[in-house]
Each structure stands twice: as C-alpha cells, then as structure tokens.
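Late entry, written up from scratch paper. The run itself happened at the end of the previous shift, but nothing got recorded in the book at the time, so transcribing now.
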Amino acid sequence: GVTIALIDTGADPDHVALAGKIVAFKDFVNNQNSAYDDNGHGTHCASLIAGSEGIGVAPGAELLVVKVMDRDGACYLSDALKALDWCLENKDRYGIKVISFSVGGESPSDGSSLLDEACNNMVDKGIVMCVAAGNSGPSSKSIVIPGDADKVITVGAVDSKGSIFELSSRGPSADGTIKPDLVTLGVD
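Output as recorded:
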C-alpha cells in the first residue's frame, strides 16, 4: 500500500511480475519518458521488492522507477544525488515512503561522503533508505558508500540456498558499525 522509489538501472514494465506496478518513471541517463531497463539489474531488484506471483516481499506496493545507471551499471555521482533530490521533491506527490538504492561506490569510506550525507538526509526527511552493501567482498570492512551511512538499512546478498554471495560486501563499516543490517536474495 505504499510507494517505493527504485533508484537503479530502470525496470521492465513488461516483466510478468511487474505488470501494473510502475506508477512513474524518471530517467537521468537517457532522458526517456517510458520505463525501460537496458541492464536487467533494476528489473531484478524491482521484482524482489514488489513483484507479484510470490516473487516480491511487498507485492502490494507500487514502484516509482528512477534510472541513474547506464546499460553497463555505471552511475555518475551527480546523477545519484539529483535522483535523491528528485525523490525528495516528489515525496508527497507520489507518496514515497521507501527508497531502494542499489547504487554504490567502488570502495569503503568513513561514512562522511556526499552520498552518505545525502542518504542520511533522506532518512531525516522521513524516507526509509535501503541501500546495497556493495560487491567488494569477501574481505571484512568492504561495505561501500552509501552502505556505510549511519541511518540507512544496508543490504547484502545471498543465493537461493541462503549462502552469502562471495562478492557481497562485509562489515563492519570503517567506524566499527555492524553492517550489513540484513541480507536477501541477490544472486542469479
């Protein structure tokens, strides 16, 4: 019954699990008006979040899809920050309660990067931020920005058998905070 903003590679509106789930779309990469996903990562995440057919954890949720990553999964920091600002500006218009932000840096930080601060600010403004731990594992202290932000829910990846994905980033964060907060399906 809530709207979840998915900031990712986009989402395929024709995917069987996402039929009728996407209520709005914003593209910071190619400035397209209709939802699409030229990578697949966003569609995977959208299905895990709100997919029907027993796939998603919140099948009654609607999705606002924000594309910030290109077909190779690359993202400019400026686009990520613009996407967060756009979500905040449109929070009331679309009823955004949660943001799924599966975008991250390539290395850990001390939790004080611009992206960490922006994500913490979203929480202060009343939006639950779920962010990726990253794919820099298996070594400890490999959580990437913004997964090391204090106020976000940091999510690592497991396979269908419940085993931690080898590359899923591990905690603790640089300041010793236990991260990730939880793990969920994220492999294949």
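Residues 130 and 153 are 5 Å apart (CA to CA).
(Scratch paper discarded after transcription.)
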